[in-house]
Structure formats: structure tokens, C-alpha cells
Amino acid sequence: MSVLEIKDLHVSIEDKEILKGVNLTINTDEIHAIMGPNGTGKSTLSAAIMGNPNYEVTQGEILFDGENILEMEVDERARLGLFLAMQYPSEIPGITNAEFMRAAMNARRDEDDKISVMDFITKLDDKMSLLNMHEDMAERYLNEGFSGGEKKRNEILQLLMLEPTFAILDEIDSGLDIDALKVVSKGINAMRGENFGALIITHYQRLLNYITPDVVHIMMDGRVVMTGDADLARRLEAEGYAGISKELGIEY
Ligand code: ADP
Ligand code: MG
Ligand code: MG
């Protein structure tokens, strides 16, 4: 079992404090969702976990099995088993999708334990068929000319191939049609298990119709203001953020 702990995290962007003391504990075998209105700091949280240098952590800790990761570079965090799906995945010209995934998988393996080409291809075929992906997606250059939906689906393919310990999925559902949403959800659900934990960040409740989170957190104004189970997401669907903001007396 592994645990990702976020303790009293304060994050600033250009001297403006965005996160004002976030506390969260995610264990493997759990799927957490963070929901919240636009501009409350959800993407800032995911960027800080992954180590984006534009986000300054001014206070607090992020612990992966007790080890503070804040001093680690982005690639070290990835090797440790963190996976971040970007809200706007970048295009990396000149490297195919398959090459990228094999390199990323091998980066987490010892020198004498690299994945063989055969094993890689077998696994890739298996995961691509689970996601109803066309086989030419593997040989295309990474994210070049991918539609929004293809990028999202491809991120889930990367997730299934890399098998991280923790995934932070920021707005993995934005801009997806219903079929793509179902495929993305199927991929995330397929990861569920004792060696995997996820933090799913979403503005809408819709994704949570397909992935039932174990824990739901509401973020407002840079803090987690309420935590509950899947019913909390349903309440939000019914009341919007206004109901919770009124109850707690928080402006957002
Ligand atoms: P959310 O993901 O919840 O919509 P964000 O984390 O993207 O919120 O943004 C939180 C706040 O930080 C917003 O007020 C936003 O305008 C501000 N912000 C985000 N990124 C930057 C940036 N690069 N420079 C300045 N302000 C930013
Ligand atoms: Mg935003
Ligand atoms: Mg965001």
C-alpha cells in the first residue's frame, strides 16, 4: 500500500496566493474526486503535485510514502510513480506515441529489467483494444494533430501502459463527447486496484456517473472545504456550488 499526503499546502503564482492550506490523503485502492468552481485552484494543485516550476510552494508538504517530493524534479516524481494528465497536453514533435510510452515505462525499470519489444507490443495491443483505439495512434507523433478527444484517450492509454501508483487527472473529461467519456472512464476503472490511487479533478459531475469515487472533496477559494462520499457529487449536481458556498459562508 502507498499513500500520497498533501499537508497544509500553500501555493502562489506570481506572488498571489492561490492555494491557502490544502490537506488531502490519498491511499492506493482509492479514487478521490476534487470538484470546485472555476478558478479555485484545482489545476494549481495538480501542477504543484507534479512540480511545475511556475507554481511556488510557500508552505506545506507533499509526501509520497512519507518522503517529501517537493525537492524532486518532475521526472523523479514520475519515476516514483506519479502520473499527471495535463489539462492541455503538449505536442512533442519527432517522437512517436509508442516510443514515448516505451521510454517512460523503461525509465521506471532497472537496467536489467527493461520491457522487451514483444511484451511492449502485446501490452499495447491489449490496452488499445480496451480503449477502442485505432492502431495507427501508436505510430503517430506524440499529440501532433490529435483531436482533443484523441489526446484524452491517449492519456488514458499512457496511464494503462505506465501503471503509475498515483494518477492526478485534471479535467480528463473536458470536451469529450459521451462515447469518449465512456471509454476514458472504462480505462480509469480498469486501473482500480490495490496498487493504484487516483485524484480526479473535474468541474462537472458528469464523469462521476461513470467512475464512482470513494471520496469527494469540494475545493473553494484555495482550500478543501468539504469532504464526503459519492453522494456529495450528487448533491452538487442538484444544488450547484451555490448551495455549498451558502451553507459554509464562503465566497468563490
Ligand atoms: P481551477 O483549475 O480550479 O479552475 P486554477 O488553478 O487554474 O483554477 O486557477 C486558480 C487561480 O490562479 C485563478 O484565479 C487563476 O486566474 C490563477 N492562475 C492560474 N494560473 C495562473 C498563471 N499562470 N498566472 C497567473 N494566475 C494564474
Ligand atoms: Mg481554470
Ligand atoms: Mg483547472
UniProtKB/TrEMBL annotation:
Span of the signal peptide: none
Domain ABC transporter: 4-246
GO cellular component: plasma membrane
Main localisation: membrane
Lipid bilayer topology: Peripheral membrane protein
One Pfam match: ABC_tran
Molecular function as annotated in GO: ATP binding; ATP hydrolysis activity
UniProt-listed SMART domains: AAA
Keywords for this protein: ATP-binding, Nucleotide-binding
Location(s) in or outside the cell: Cell membrane
UniProt similarity note: Belongs to the ABC transporter superfamily. Ycf16 family.
Name of protein: Fe-S cluster assembly ATPase SufC
Taxonomic classification: Bacteria, Bacillati, Bacillota, Bacilli, Lactobacillales
